[in-house]
Design goal:
The chain starts with a strand and ends with a strand. 33% of the residues are buried. The strands form 4 sheets. A 4-stranded antiparallel sheet has the order 5-8-1-10, covered by helices on one side. The chain has a two-stranded antiparallel sheet with strand order 2-3. It is an alpha+beta fold and 206 residues long. Helix 1 packs antiparallel against helix 4. It is built from 4 helices and 10 strands. It is globular and about 50 Å long.
Amino acid sequence: MHSQYAMVFYPQPIGLNNLSQAAVEQILTALSDAGFLGDFFTKEYANETNEVQSGYLIGSDFLQLITFLGCAPHIEIVIPEEASAWKQFCHIEIQQYQQSIYYKGLNNPKCSCPHCTARVAKNLPDSFKHDSQWQANKLYIECPKCHEKSLVENLNWRHSGGFGAFFIVVNSIYPNEAVPTEKLLQILQQASKGVFASWDYFYSEN
């Protein structure tokens, strides 16, 4: 049971698979030292599924590295006692895969053609929109305006979805409620220097 909304960080290039444990630890250490990542936790819930939830608490400088837009943010940062409150709990998960996949973003993505910027979301098959394990290098989308074909991972996703094999998921962040600071993106890039060229983010809606 994951949060309904999240902000997800992912690196480029997307084709890099099997990130070494040493590289992962370097990224996690940098985020911890910067105060973005807090302690790791595990919580068991005695319900019909006897589920176990785990992840990282937000760090002491989380609110200095994420900019919340509009009024003062209200985020739940205490591990909930009831599984039903999990959706409101702001925590961080690290998700890693053996191959580059589509990590489901918004239910109505805003992707556009990389050649002419025309919107192409309507050209995505329904199976793609609902499948969070869609692999890269499999699907071409034809632009309805310029008729150029592009691999779906090369579309401009406009922070509404993303491809990769390594993701940092900040749960319980609503779409466009917050954005990462340039400092946070620089911390990620420096921590993965020589492995990834850059980092970006998108919003996810489950």
